[in-house]
Amino acid sequence: MIRPLIGITTSITDNTQELSVNYVDAIIEAGGLPIIIAAAKDSSDIYVEIARKIDALIITGGPGITQRLVGALPKDLPAVCERRWESDVAIFNLVSERKRPILGICYGMQLINTQKGGTIYADVQDQLGVSPHSPKRNNGRLIEHPIDVLKETFFAELIGKQRVEVNSFHIQAIKEIGAGLHVNSYSNDGLIEGIEGEQGRLLGLQFHPESMQDAIWKKVFVDFISRSKI
Question: Alpha-carbon distance 183 to 155, whole Å?
Fold first, then answer.
């Protein structure tokens, strides 16, 4: 069996590239072959080659987005480093040009939105007065909450439910949706929890499905791998 090659972006902390094994495990279990994408410096040619080779892309969670930002980043959310941002944007645009599937998770969803012209709240808790959506704002305790999935969306068809429990690790959130994108789910306090576009080829989730054990979230990765084979 030939496994499709799935590129996964990394995060950078203190000059070290990092990646949760949960992403790797989720891809392998769904039938894909994970390819870790290094955040190379001034290496656009490298990304062109990577984009040609991979069958799909996952943009993982990360720090604070500073582009198309509404408000100022809070002190407890470090800004994404320039090296990672430029790497993520480059590979996103190249894979988009090839019309390959892209899954954005948390920061990854927000990045997709910015590249489509959307905007991001810098600190949604402060700006909208909602309850904490990050454990660091909840004395380190895990946050879980329900989301309402909109009917007649790709995401609704995929998971087969209109209301489902998710985890939460974000301080930023989408304000204005980008061109060509559609909201597929909201939290009970009105935050956008999912976006999609191009008949499901683009899917963004504000939560982390790779970290949840419910079989419903395995469907996200199984479908993603299936689409990458087309």
Answer: 10
Contact 119, 69 (CB under 8 A): yes
| Cα distance from N-terminal residue to C-terminal residue, the chain | 15
pLDDT digits (tens, 9 = 90+) for 197-219: 999 999 999 999 999 999 999 99
Give the C-alpha distances (Å, rounded to integers) separating 31 from 34, 50, 148, 215, 221: 10, 20, 29, 15, 9
Taking the C-alpha atoms of residue 25 and residue 20, their distance in angstroms, rounded to an integer, is 9
Token digits for 188?
Answer: 């009970």
pTM (predicted TM-score): 0.97
> Residue 67 has which token pair?
């582009």
Residue 187, both tokens: 């939290």
Q: Around Cβ 128, how many Cβ atoms within 10 Å?
A: 13
The sign of the CA dihedral 174, 62, 33, 112 is positive
The SS3 of residue 148 is: strand
